[in-house]
Amino acid sequence: MINFCNLYSGSSGNCTYVASEETRILVDAGVSCNKIIKALDEIGVDIDEIDAIIISHEHIDHTRGLTTLCKKHHIPVYANRRTWNMIESLNVPDTCRLVFSTSQEFEIGDFTIYPFPIPHDAVEPCGFSLYSEGKKITITTDIGHITEGTLHQLECSDILLLEANYDTETLKCGPYPYQLKKRIMSDSGHLSNEEASKAISYLSKNNCQNIVLGHLSKENNFPELAYQTVMNEITQNGNICNLSVASRDFVDPMITL
Ligand SMILES: [Zn+2]
Ligand SMILES: [Zn+2]
Description:
Bound molecules: zinc ion
Radius of gyration: 17 Å
Helix content: 25-40%
Number of helices: 9
Strand content: 15-25%
């Protein structure tokens, strides 16, 4: 049995729980240690039962809780070497630091994890596919655009968490400074609802049946708008999938496979 639960999602902090019968993993730790403990408590998991944390990239909305989590709870943290160099100031104890190489599989308990490169304005950002018990869970947020290779990597995910960061019109008309808008919309920024919907329309007919939209912008998106934009594209193409939107500050219902 595989359990997946979005604990936090968005620019204020990201943390996702993925577990098999034997192994419990957090993908990113972008909110405080206390908030992570509280969210895990809601799903009946003790922080000391977490086997490892894997880090997608160095931005603070993915790493905020690391220092306290490691100092107090000694949880092993996996990141690639360049990301570790970028988060040196977080002073994660040496005993908790583990290194993976992007594009090389590694094991945590009964999970095999494949970190794949994604375009984003961080030093070496990754998405992750986690495999266990014959299932594939893929988590990829903070992705400026979707390449052919990435799309292929997302295929056949039993659960996919994909970014739908902004609605283009809302962003363009919104209060952000021009340079920031440009950064978000660039190929190494974030993914729009429209871009996500095109990818998901393809993926929903390529064996992705549970898709969660995540990392929504608070200022430049609305959960209903993201959902409708993607759902319209899926149904127009005659496809179906279980689509949901990850909450920013609330623990979402567990998805169990
Ligand atoms: Zn982020
Ligand atoms: Zn980021």
